[in-house]
Design a protein that fits this description.
Length: 307
């Protein structure tokens, strides 16, 4: 796995080395033993993880842990994985099919980063946005990238509360086999939505009655969706796909089998691969990606923490 070598405190380096050796959470019974759907001789899907520095309390917003854990999970399923804690360069984006973003306030984009992201999307690169990655200073701009966004600094969250999902589109490849369920996490409600095109809602949740959500309790708000868009006309323009899961406040939820499966299908889908391509662990040396970790500490990023 390609990791930038900007120094972090020694404790962070030890954490990163340790977690790469941990086993990922199991998938639902039967899935892990199924044969891989993709042709093992085909080029692996190339996934770039854009994470951030740890924020919030223990067990919350653990972006470096995600980088470590999901590098292993994806590599074991045949993906080629790179990543770091700062926005990737143009060269790094050019070598990726999908960028998975799990960091606070990824909507803060410099001029160069915005141009690099634009080039990535113009050639059809896929995006996965998790939790507060869609926060930033200009929600209209980021809504035009992933379909919906939240303005940084607004009191616009339920905090620790039930998030009861209603599956709106159970037939979508990402939502295979999923039915209504509830997790303890955080939901956002005051969203800026793209109008052209609109999002494709996969699941909604009813806002809990918490002090921070006063006046919005009972509102039904999309929490899981897809977004497809082309930034240039055909034949030169390639449409890109985005997938958004607005939860991930509590890191333990990433280990839930139904959520892990949904994210794996989402990554494959935005990469324009069969949705079940990453659902099976592959034997070493048979169709696995080459992006294995070296135990090097991830680079310190420019990201800001946020709700």
């Amino acid at each position: 796995m390609t990791i930038r070598r900007t120094a972090l405190p020694i404790a962070a380096a030890v954490l990163f080395t340790t977690v790469l050796a941990q086993q990922p959470a199991p998938l639902p019974p039967g899935q892990a033993t199924q044969p891989a759907a993709a042709n093992p001789t085909a080029a692996p899907i190339r996934v770039l993880i854009y994470a951030g520095l740890k924020t919030h309390a223990v067990g919350q917003h653990d972006y470096p842990q995600f980088l470590a854990d999901w590098s292993k999970i994806l590599t074991e399923r045949g993906a080629y994985v790179t990543g770091g804690l700062q926005f990737p360069s143009a060269r790094e984006l050019a070598s990726a099919d999908v960028m998975v973003i799990y960091k606070g306030d990824a909507g803060y984009l410099g001029v160069e980063d915005r141009a690099n992201l634009d080039s990535f999307m113009r050639r059809g690169g896929g995006l996965v946005s998790i939790h507060d990655a869609l926060c930033g200073p200009d929600p209209e701009l980021f809504a035009g990238i992933v379909g919906g966004a939240k303005k940084h600094g607004e009191v616009n969250y339920t905090l620790e509360a039930d998030v009861p999902y209603t599956i709106v589109d159970p037939s979508h490849p990402i939502m295979q086999g999923m039915t209504a369920f509830t997790i303890k996490d955080e939901a956002f409600f005051n969203m800026t939505w793209s109008k052209t095109p609109e999002i494709k809602v996969l699941a909604t949740a009813t806002m809990a009655a918490t002090p921070s959500a006063k006046g919005h309790e009972g509102e039904v708000v999309p929490q899981i969706w897809t977004y497809e868009k082309s930034l240039a006309p055909a034949p030169t323009g390639m449409p890109y796909r985005a997938f958004v899961w607005m939860q991930g406040h509590n890191y333990a939820n990433f280990a839930q089998p139904n959520i892990q499966g949904m994210l794996l299908r989402g990554i494959a889908w935005v990469g324009k691969r069969p949705a079940d391509e990453l659902m099976s662990v592959r034997p070493a040396g048979r169709g696995r990606g080459r992006g294995t970790g070296t135990g090097t500490a991830p680079a310190e990023g420019r990201g800001r923490g946020g709700q």
